[in-house]
Write a structure and sequence with these properties.
mainly alpha, 4 helices, elongated
């Protein structure tokens, strides 16, 4: 069971990274005019990116509970911090895009991408 969860965690993390990249593309491709609501593909990409990244974080917590020694490791706490920071950056990016602030939305989507990419690397490398 543990091995299946580890594989699911890694695979979903890669998909979360790709969806975050797609959200950055949406933020860059959207016209600068503000929109009252986001619908269609924009909404699906945003929800998919945030939901999948949160699911990856929750799976990581489950894996950490299965190996309690990991709670002392730095990468576990980095993962928990990203689990909190990523949806906040995502919500601000979505709101900025809806308000017509394309530059802010793109910048926050880059922050989201950096958070996921660095965390993905940390979880693979475990340098500490």
């Amino acid at each position: 069971m543990y091995e299946i969860l580890v594989k699911a965690h890694g695979g979903l993390a890669m998909l979360a990274l790709l969806l975050t990249l797609a959200w950055g593309g949406v933020a860059l491709a959207t016209p600068s005019a503000g929109q009252a609501t986001m619908g269609g593909v924009k909404k699906a990409v945003y929800i998919g990116a945030v939901a999948l990244t949160s699911l990856v974080g929750l799976l990581g917590l489950i894996l950490a509970l299965m190996a309690p020694a990991w709670f002392g490791a730095v990468f576990t706490w980095v993962g928990i911090a990203v689990l909190v920071a990523y949806p906040i950056a995502g919500a601000r990016s979505r709101r900025a895009l809806a308000a017509g602030s394309k530059g802010m939305a793109a910048g926050l989507s880059v922050l989201m991408l950096v958070l996921v990419a660095i965390t993905y690397w940390l979880m693979l490398a475990k340098p500490f």
